[in-house]
Amino acid sequence: MSTASRDRRWTLEELHALPDDRNKYELIDGELFVTPAPTDEHERILSRLHELLVPFVSAEGLGRIYRPRSVFRIGRTVEVEPDLMVRQDNQDPEGAWEKAPLPNLVVEVLSKRTRTHDLTRKRALYLMAGIAEYWVVDGKARTFTVFVADRGPVVVSDEMTWWPAGASEPLRFALVKIFPPSL
User: Fold this and answer.
1) Confidence band of 1 (pLDDT split at 50, 70, 90)
2) Which of 3, 67, 103, 147 is the most exposed place for a label (fewest CB within 10 A)?
3) d(CA 64, CA 27)
4) C-alpha to C-alpha distance for 58 and 6, rounded to whole angstroms
5) Residues 6 or more apart whose Cβ sits within 8 Å of residue 64
6) Please, which pLDDT band fits residue 150 given cuts at 50, 70 and 90?
7) Which residues neighbour 84 within 8 Å (Cβ) at sequence distance 6 or greater?
8) Non-local CB neighbours of 90 within 8 Å, separated by 6+ positions
9) Residue 29 gets which letter from DSSP?
10) Digit-coded pLDDT (tens) for 10-50
11) What's the pLDDT at 57?
12) What is the model's pLDDT at position 95?
């Protein structure tokens, strides 16, 4: 489970001073969230999704796909590490995360430890920030839940379609490519 430290308000400086102990540390409005390293299944899902997205994102000129250790930052009180995000390249010569363009897509893969956090705090954060589309991938249910501002969530269990702004055509893929049949 993702644990939160509610005893006090954390700063980015304190967050960045934490040890590199394979845990994922995130800050939302001064609240520190700690998540242990992901499981092998979590990473397999992300790897399959990454393989499907790369040719489309590249061909459509949508930027780059960012994976673990890449952050989404808002000001001095929010820094989270999405499991995957698609955004244009950062043209800032210092590479500052807070100056990076807004992602077109953010993806989180649910786990027992992050389920509540991904479906509540992170969903609210991403939609409030103006992220065009937020996908929550549930390996156990073998579904994608798509969140877009001003629209209710859509649960997909067969074929996923993504048509981001700037793309000439949509990306379509069967979820069996992400969740292959069990042996």
Assistant:
1) very low
2) 3
3) 24
4) 41
5) 57, 86, 87, 88, 89
6) confident
7) 46, 49, 50, 53, 65, 66, 67, 105, 106, 107
8) 96, 97, 99, 100, 101
9) T
10) 888 888 888 888 778 878 888 888 887 888 999 999 999 99
11) 97
12) 62
Measured on CA atoms in the order 102, 55, 109, 166, is the torsion positive or negative? positive
Centre a 10 Å sphere on the Cβ of residue 76 and count the other Cβ atoms it contains: 12
Give the DSSP letter of residue 122: I
Round to whole Å and give the CA distance between 154 and 152.
7
- Angle 12-16-21 (CA atoms, 0-180°, nearest 5)? 140
Q: What average pLDDT does the segment 101-105 reach?
A: 90
3-state secondary structure of 92: coil
| CA pair distance 117, 26, nearest whole angstrom | 11
Length of the chain: 183
> Is there a contact between 90 and 98 (Cβ–Cβ < 8 Å)?
no
Instruction: Decide if 62 contacts 86 (C-beta within 8 A).
Output: yes
Average pLDDT over residues 52-69: 93
In CATH terms, the fold of domain 39-67+82-177 is: tt1808, chain A (3.90.1570)
Residues 125, 5, 117, 113, CA torsion sign:
positive
- Residue 107 pLDDT > 70: yes
Number of H helices, E strands in the chain: 4, 13
